[in-house]
Amino acid sequence: MSCLEALGAAVAGTVDLLDEASGLPKRAILARVKSPKLATSLHKLAKIYTGRTNNPKKQAAARENITAQGHTFDTLEIVERYAKKLVNKRRMWEVRETLTRLPADDRLLTAEAKKLVARLNGKRVDAPDKIVSARDVKNSTLMDLHVRGTGYKMEMVMERVRQYSADNNVHPADAIQDLILGADVGGSSQITPMVVLTLDKNVIGKTKEARNQYTFSLTNGSTITGLELAQADLTDKGYAILLDPFDGATLGLYQFDTPNPHARFADPLDRFIQKVKNPVCAWPDCGTGAEYSQVHHVHSYKDGGRSTEENFSVLCKFDNGRNDDDRTKPKHGHMEKIDGLDYWVPAFGGEKLLNMHPCAQGGAVRVAKRMWNANNPDRRIAF
């Protein structure tokens, strides 16, 4: 056996190496492996996967998964990096057991870990109480009004308030009071922002209860459950686009003219497509709805970037303003298209990130990719 073959065999026996390192102090491991980085990793992982734990069943299952899937110290470090991001640390073994069931592929593991941790850390409550309350503001004649209601309706209320405020030159707080007290008849209750839909039961759920709870994304930055959507008053006209799950390309969109790639700004068709693909600003952690954002040139127009679908993204005014259009002068990072998805690239190197906001995850390209993965488990698309 050559030295390289011996190294490969040793790395493949991850669980055996962890068992051998179990209980040893870090300096003893370092004396054997000669690499401080490897010694640190071995010492840490041995404590986790061989030491005492409050969940021995999931630990045992994870150990079996490590051997079955061929996980290495590198892939286990990815698992631990995302397990540490959990708000509820008691669910760390759930993450470890789930992620070690996946193949030892760095990109796939990272993509699935992001989605799993984002879901487990989600602040959504299944059935929160709706609230209306008013409180006096100390040392004033003012009161605070607090209303918690259905997300998409509250967003429409705020849009109506902003419009009334602008039309009548009054403060938004006064606009709310005027509208409630009948100074105006109010606005339409129809959903005018676009909603990103899929009818594939493998994605939205095979039972009525699952479909009622499935969350769709609206392009005003809010979300809506299947039950709320079924009960909503929808506008009469609708459109459909067909997306390629591999690269996010639009394969069909009806009744629109062809866009002009030499135009300075996106036309209505371009804006329509981008809002469906990105219901919110694509910058990580931003929740500004696409309705209130701008169509962004990934490669800037002044530097020769074309006004085409492949070169468009959606960014709010703030993030569009700070995006590094000039790559030679990095400061805040910039956007990049990868397989139809909009990634933020750090200014000085590092991991490229998708926006993991709940509404962003309902964008059409991501939905199309999830549909493909659900129907093609042996040919999954990592994202």
Can you tell me about this structure?
The chain is 42% helix and 12% strand. By secondary structure, the protein is an alpha+beta fold. The chain folds into three domains: 119 residues, no CATH class; 51 residues, no CATH class; 194 residues, no CATH class. The strands form five sheets. It has a three-stranded antiparallel beta sheet with strand order 3-4-5. The relative contact order is 0.08.
In short:
With 383 residues, the chain is of the alpha+beta class.
Q: Identify the overall geometry.
A: globular
- Poorly predicted sequence stretches spanning 5 or more consecutive residues: none
Cα-based radius of gyration, to the nearest Å: 25 Å
The secondary-structure class comes to: alpha+beta
Largest sheet: 3 strands, antiparallel
Mean pLDDT over all positions: 83
Q: How much strand? A: 5-15%
Query: Strands of the largest sheet, in order across it?
Result: 3-4-5
Alpha plus pi helix count: 16
Number of strands: 11
Order of helices and strands: HHHHHHHHEEHHEHHEEHEEHEEHEEH
Number of domains: 3
Rounded to the nearest angstrom, the distance between the terminal CA atoms is 38 Å
Helix content: 40-55%
